[in-house]
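ok here's Aromatic-ring-hydroxylating dioxygenase subunit beta:
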Amino acid sequence: MTNANFQDQRVLRAIELVWREAALLDAKDYPTWEELFTDDGIYVVPIDPDTTDYATSLNMIYDDKRMRHMRVERMIQGYAPSAVAAARTARTVSSFVVKEVSDTEVTLRSAQILSAYKRNEFQTIGAELTHTIALGDTPESDQIKEKVARLINSEFAVNAAGFLI
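and the structure:
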C-alpha cells in the first residue's frame, strides 16, 4: 500500500463511514447503525481467526438484515440483559490498510480497541476489523456491505458483551 491510497476520495469516504459507525455504536444509536448496512450486508464476529467462509463456520455473530434488526430490537427494548444498564463504550479505530478499491467498493482492514465500562468494571476488547463499503452516489449514501470483527482472543473464553463490536 502507498500513501496515495489515503489521498483517494473513495478511501477517505470509506474511512469516514467506519468512524461514523463507531460513533453511532458508542452513542447507542442502534437504529441509525442498522441503516448503515446494505440490504444484503452482513455483520460477522467469527471464532476461527482465519476463516473466510462465515456461512459454514462457527461464529459469535453472523447477522444478515433480519438478524441485525432483531439484535437492534433487543438492544433498544430494555428487556434483554444486554440492554439493561448497557455498558458505556469508547471505540478507537485506526491503523487502516486499504485492501481493495474500485469505483463501487472499498475494502479496508483496521484495528479497533473497544473500552467498555459497566457495573464498576472496565473491559477492553481488541479486534481486527474488515469493512467492505459500497460506495453510493454521495458520501451520505455509502453503506456497509460486510463487516467482519475478528476478536484477538476469539479462540479463548470471551466475556459476554452487552454491546455490538
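+1. The radius of gyration is 16 Å.
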